Amino acid sequence: MTHEEHHGEAGERSQEAAIVLPGPTFWPLVIAFGITLLLAGIVTHWAVGVVGLIVTFRAAVGWWHNVIPIEEHEEVPIDPELRPAPIQVEQRSVVRLRAGESGHRVRIPERIHPYSSGLWGGLAGGVAMAAIACLYGLVAQHSIWYPINLLAGVVIPGMGDQTVEQLRHFQMLPFFAALIGHGIISILVGIVYAVILPMFPKYAPFWAGILMPLFWSGLVATTLSVINPVMNERINWPWFVVAQLGFGLVGGYFIARSTSIRTMQTWTLAERAFVEAPGLHQPDEGKHG
Amino acid sequence: MASIDYPLEHPKAEALTPEFSFSESLYKWVATVDHKRLGLMYVVSALVFLVIAGIMASVIRMQLAFPLNHVVGPDTFNRLFTMHGTTMVFLVGMPMVAGFSVYLIPLMIGTRDMAFPRLNAFGFWIFLLGGCLLYFSYIGGGGLSGDGSAPDVGWFAYAPLTEKAFSRGAATDYWALGVLLSGVGSIVTALNVIATTFCMRCPGMTLSRMPMFVWVMLIDAWLVLVALPPLSAAQIMLELDRHLGANFFDTQAGGSAVLWQHLFWIFGHPEVYILIFPAFAILSEVIPVFSRKPLFGRPAMVGAVTAIGFISLGVWAHHMFAIGMTSWSNTFFAASSMLVGVPTGIKIFNWTATMYGGKLRMQTPLLFCIAFLLQFLVAGLTGIMLAVAPFDWQLHDSYFVVAHFHFTLVGGLVFGLFAGMYYWFPKVSGKMLDEKLGKWHFWLFCIGFNMTFLTLHFAGFLGMPRRIYTYYPGRGWDAINLIASLGVIPQAAGILCFVWNIIRSSLRGIPAGDDPWDAWTLEWATTSPPPEYNFEKLPVVRSSRPLWDLKHPQDPDWKYE
Prior knowledge:
The complex is a heterodimer of chains A (289) and B (561). Chain A is mainly alpha-helical and 289 residues long. Chain A contains eleven helices and five strands. Chain A folds into two domains: 17-79, Helix Hairpins (Orthogonal Bundle); 112-258, no CATH class. In chain A, helix 4 (115-141) packs across helix 5 and helix 4 runs antiparallel to helix 10 (237-257). The relative contact order of chain A is 0.11. Chain B has a single domain, classed as Cytochrome c oxidase-like, subunit I domain (Cytochrome C Oxidase, Chain A, Up-down Bundle). Helices cover 65% and strands 0% of the residues of chain B. The radius of gyration of chain B is 24 Å and the shape is globular. The chains are: A mainly alpha (289), B mainly alpha (561).
C-alpha cells in the first residue's frame, strides 16, 4: 500500500528534469517607477511627469512583448537537494468523538424543563418568599404590611418619607405595586431557574436553591442603595437572605418535579426535519414537550 | 513510527542550484516574479516601515510623557502623528496583508505561483514606490517657507483642512499621491489573490477543503477590492480640488467636507477588518496546530468571516456620530456596528474552543495568539461601547478612541503577525527562531503594550483629547501619560529582541526541517525554504488537513469530511 494510491501526492517526486516557471522581468518595476514619476510630476516639476510618461509607455511596451505572443518562461531544474524528507507516518490512532456516544459528557443540557414549570415554580417560590417576609414583619414590626410597603419603595419614591408607623399600615397603591413587581420578578426568575437548572450538577434543586439566592442577595446588597434607598436603610439582611433561600428551595423543588423534555440537539437529523416514519420516534421521549 | 515509501529513492545527487554573484543576486531579486521572494520583500519592507513608525510613536510618547514638555515642536508633532498613522496603516498593515497572502497562498493551495506573477511584482513595486514618494515629502514637501514638509493633516486627512487654503505647499499632495499609489498595489494584489484562489487550487482542493488561512485572505481580498477604490477616488478628487479648483470638498465654494468623511470611512472601516483579517487567518492556523486539535467549528468560522466581511461594509458612519447625523442614521450605524460583534464573537469562541481540551504547546506563536485573544476581546468590547452613539459623543476624539484602535491594530493585528512570523519563519528560512528570545520578545512587548495602551483608556475617560501637542499639569493626566510613555521602553526592547532573533537565527539558527511543528497544511509538505517551483509534482488532497491524512493513513480526515 503506497500513499499514492490512498493519500494524495504532497511532496511527491517528479520524473522530469526541470519545471517551467514564469521568467524574471524588470518591466513591472519599471512601469511602477514610471507611474510614480508621472504622479510625482504633479508635486515637483512638469518635466518629471513627462519623463514618467515616457518611462511608463516604454515599460508597457516591454511588458507587452514579455507576454505576447508567448509568455516568457524559464526552466528551473529540479534540485534533488531540495527534495522534502519523507513524511513520517504516525501509528498512534486518534479517538474521534461521535454524536450520542455513551460516556461522553454532553455539555449542553440534553433535557430541559418546560418554561411553564418555571412560571409555576417562580410563583410558588414567590409565595414562599412573601410568607417569610410577612413572618419577619410580624416578628420584628408586628405588621405584615411593613415589608410590603418597603418593597413598594422600588417604584414609589414617596415611600422614603414615611415614618415606621405609616409603613406598618396597609396602603392600597403600595400593596398593588409590590404585588405586581414581586409577581413579575418571581416569574422571570422562575423561568431562568427552569432554563439553568439542568446545567447544575447533582442535586440541582438544592444547589440552585442555595447558590442562586446567595448570588442574588449579594447583587441586591451592592445595588439596593440605588434601586430602593428606603429599603436599603431599613432592611434586615439575615431575614432577607432567609426569604431568598425560601424562594430558591421552593421554586427549585417545583421546577425539578416537572417532566423534563429532550432538547433538539439530541434528535437525529430525520427527527429534526420532522420526518414522520414508522420506528423513527421513540415512544416515551416527550421531546415535543 | 514508520516512513511512507516513495516511488523513487532519495538520491544524494549534486545540488543544481547555482551560486550567484552579488549583481546576479540583485537582478534575481529586482526582476523576480516568484511569489515567495515578493512575499518576503513585502514583509521586510513592512518591517522597515514598522521600525520607522515605531520610532515616530516613541517620539510622540516622549513629548507627552510630562506636561508642558518640549521634545519636539508642535508642527513636528503634527507631522509625526500623521506619518505614524499613515505609515502603520498603509505601509505596514497593508503590505503585511499582501506579503503573507502572496507568500503562503500558492503553497497552501498546492500551486507553483500566483495567477498573475508579473502583476504580483508590479503590486509590490508600486506599493514600495508609493511609500517612498510619501517619505520624499520630508525633502520635497515644500511647506510654507519652501523647505521640506511632511504631511500634517492626520492619517484620515479631513477636509477642508486639506484644501489649498489651509494646507499650503505640497505635503498634502504627497500624502494623497503616495497613498494612492500604494493603494493601487493593494488592489492589484487583491485581484491576484482572488484569481489564484479560485483558479489555481491543486486537484482535490475544493473550497470546503481550503485552509482557513486562505479562506480568510480570500474574503480579505474581496474587501480590499470593494473598499479601497472609494479612497482612491476621494484622493483623486482631492487632487482635482487642490490643482484644478474642482471644489468637491471646499466648503466655502459649495463643496462638502462631510463627503470626504463618508468616502474616507467607506474605505476606513472595512480597512480595520482588512487589517485584522490576516491576524484572524494566522490564528486559525496556529491555534489548531499548537493545540493539537482541528479548528473548532470550521464551517461556522467561514460563515463568520464572510458575515464580518459583509457587515463591515455597512458600519462606516460610526466614525461620524459627532458630526450631527439624523437619529435614524445614528441608530442604523450603531446597530450595524454592534451586529458585527456577533460573528466576531463566534470566532473568539471557536478559537477558545479549539484550545479547550487540547494538548497545548506553550511556544511563542501560541503565546502571541493567547495575548491576541485577550487584547482583541478588550478592543471588541470598547468598540461596542463606542458603537453606542451617546457614549461616542462623550469620548469622540479622546484618548479612549486611541487606546481602542491601538488595542485592535497592535494588540490584535501586530500580535497576530508576530505569531505568524514565529510560526512560518522556519518554513521561509529553514531555521528555527530562538524560543528563549521569542519569549523575551513576547513578554516585554506584551507588558509594554499594556502599560501604554491600557492606561490610555483612562486618559480618555478623564477627557484627554487625541492629537494634543501638550497639556497643563493637574488634570489627572500626568501619571497616566508617564506610565504610557514608560511602556515604550519594554516594547522597544521586545522589538530589539525580535530583530536580533531574526538576524541571529538566520545566520546560526537550528535547522528547522520541513515540518517542525507537525502541522497539517500543504506548505509543510515541501522543503524549508521551499524550492522555486514549490512542489515537484502538484499535490492531490482529499481533506482540509492533507498532511494529517499522510501522517495518519489509518485514520485520515477524508473519512469524516
